[in-house]
Amino acid sequence: MTITTQHACAECSSPYTRKRVTQDFCCNSCMKSFNNRRAIRGAQLYDLFMIMRFERKRAKVRGVWALACRLAMYWREEDLRDRNQNRSWKRLEHAEDQTSWARATIVHRG
Ligand SMILES: [Zn+2]
C-alpha cells in the first residue's frame, strides 16, 4: 500500500505529491524561481552584512542595520502580497545544514 500526501508548493502553492521527503516544489521551474529570488536578495544582504561586520563604525553612522531591516520588511510585504503569504526563506535546519562546515571549523580551532 502506498500512502501519498498532497503538499503545497513553496513557490506557487499548487498541490503536488512528493517524490522525495525533502521535495518542497511542484516542479523545477518553481524551485528555480524560489532559489533565484533568494540569490538576488542574498546578494543584496551579503555586502550590507560584511560592512556591518568589518566596517562597524561606518555601518553605524550610515544606518546599515536599519537598511537591512527595511529590505527584509519590503521583501516580506512582497511575499505576503504576491506569493499567497508563502514565506520566501528555507527552514532553519536547511540553513544550519548549509553552514555545518563553519561549525566544524570552530570546533577544530578550540
Ligand atoms: Zn509550484
Task: Tell me about this structure.
- By secondary structure, the protein is mostly helical.
- The protein has one domain.
- The protein has five helices and two strands.
- It has a two-stranded antiparallel sheet with strand order 1-2.
- Helix 1 (28-54) packs across helix 2 and helix 1 packs antiparallel against helix 3 (64-82).
- The chain is flat and about 55 Å long.
- The chain starts with 5 loop residues before the first strand and ends with a helix.
- The relative contact order is 0.09.
Strand content: 5-15%
Which residues sit in consecutive blocks of at least 5 with pLDDT less than 50? none
The major pleated sheet works out as: 2 strands, antiparallel
The ligands found in this model are: zinc ion
The value of Rg in angstroms is 18 Å
The DSSP helix count reads 5
Give the termini distance in whole angstroms: 51 Å
Helix/strand structural class: mainly alpha
- Quote the average pLDDT: 90
Work out the helicity level. 55-70%
Strand count: 2
Strand order of the largest sheet: 1-2
